[in-house]
Amino acid sequence: MSDTTDCYGDQPGRVPLRARSSGSARAWLGAYDGRECVTFEVEDNDTDRGALGPADSETLERAAGEALRRRLPLVGFIASSGADIDSGIAATMGWGRVARAVVNCSGRVPTIFCATGPAVSGPALLLGLADMAMVTEGSYAFVTGPRMVGQYTGEVISTQTLGGAGQLSRRSGVAAFMVPDKNGACDLVGTLLNLLPAHCDELPPRWAVDDPADRPTPELRDLLPDSPLGSYDVREAARAVADDGDLLEYKADWATNLVCAFATVAGRPVGMLANQPQSMAGTLDIACSQKGARFVSFCDAFNLPLVTFVDTSGFQPGKDLEWRGIIRHGAQLAFAYARATVGRVNITLRKSYGGAYIVMDSRHMGNDIALAWPSAEIAVMGARGAVEIVHRRASPAERTELEAAYEERYLNPYIAAERGSVDAVIDPADTRAEVATALELLESKRESLPRRRHDNTPL
Fold this sequence. Notes:
Layout: E1 15-17, E2 25-32, E3 35-42, H1 54-70, E4 74-80, H2 89-105, E5 111-120, H3 122-129, E6 132-136, E7 140-142, H4 146-153, H5 159-163, H6 165-170, E8 177-179, H7 182-193, H8 235-241, E9 248-249, E10 258-265, E11 268-275, H9 286-301, E12 306-312, H10 319-324, H11 326-339, E13 344-353, H12 354-359, E14 369-372, E15 377-379, H13 383-390, H14 396-410, H15 413-418, E16 424-425, H16 431-441
Parallel strand pairs: 3-4, 4-5, 5-6, 5-7, 6-8, 11-12, 12-13, 13-14, 13-15, 14-16
Antiparallel strand pairs: 1-2, 2-3, 9-10, 10-11
Helix pairs in contact: 1-2, 2-3, 9-11, 13-14
C-alpha cells in the first residue's frame, strides 16, 4: 500500500461525504493502491461505542448510494455497539435503509467490510451482507450478545468465545479473511481491489508478471501419492498454475475440504476452487457447498474466470448431514456453477465420482474446457463400491477380478474423453500452460442469461 497519513486510503484527492454531520460514522471518496473506491468508517469511541444514530445511518446510506452511482467499490470499517438506544426506533429504521442500500450494491460493485472492533446486532449483519468480510484479531461480532445468551440459555459465555475473530473465521464462516489490525486490513483491501473490477460491467485489471504462461510444472507429476486413498495438499497444484505460486485464500480456516482462492494466471485474475484430500478426503459437505457457491457467485458477478481442480469421491455420507439439509446446500454449489457465465476451466486430477462429479463444474454443468490428468477416474463411483452393489454375492476372489475389470473399463479419463466429458487428457507437467491457453481462448466469451426479475437460489 502506498504511504498514507492513516490506513484508510490514499490521501491525495480524498473527498469527504457529509463532512459536517454529527455521529460516529464518516465517509469519503478515496483510493487504495491507486484503486478508487467509496469508504466509510464507524468508529468505536469512548463516548457511545460507535452506536449508530439516524445521522450515522444517513452517512452509511449515502456512502453506499454514492458507490453505486459512481460505480466504485464500497469499503467499510465497522466498530459499533449497534443501534443508538437513545434514538429509539429512528435508529432501527435508519439501519434498515443502510441494509437496503448495501443490498442494492450487490452484484453491481464489490463490497468489502472489515470489523475492527465490536460489531453487534445490525452492524454484524452488515458483515453478512458484504461480498467480502474481514475481521481484525481483536474484533468480535454477533447478533445477540453474551448477556442475552445467558438470559435465554443460562450459559455464561465471553464475547470472544461467542463471536471473536477466530470463531468468525473457523466456525461460522462469516469472515473471508482475518488480519492482525487495521493496517493489515487496509493492505488486504488494496490487494483485493487490484484483483477486481470497479463494477460488474468492467473486466478485472491485468497484472504485469514475469512468470511465463507456458512455464512447465513437472513437480505435479509427483504430486499424487501411490495409494489411491493417500492424501496430498491440493494447494500445491493451484500454486503451480498460479503466477509465482501466489494464492489469496478465501475463508481458509472454514470448510477446509474445499480450497477457494484468488490468483492470477499469465497476469489474468481468476478464482480457483479445489477439493482438498487432506480434509475429509476431499468429500463435499454442507459448509463447503455454501463456501464454494458464494465464491463462484462472487467471481461470476465480477468477471473472474473460474479454474476448478477436482479430486473428490462424492458427498460426505451421514444422517446428520441429510437431516441438516445437504440436499438444499449441495444444490447451492450446483446452482452457482450452472448459472455462471464467466470462462470456466475444469481439471480432474484423480477421483471424480457421482453427484460430486456433476456439482464440481462438470462438462454437463456447462464448463467451457474440461481437462484431465492420466490418473483421473471419472465414474459413478469407485470400483469397490460398484462391485459391492452389483455383485454383492460374489466371493472375495471374484470381487478382486471384478474390481480390476471395472477399473480398466470405466476408471480412466479416456472413456470420458470418448464420450465428450473431457476435452483433453494432459501431462501434469503441462497444466499451467494448458490452463493459461484455455483462459486466453475464453477471454472473449460472452454469454447472456434469459431476462427475468431474479433467479431463486436454493438458500
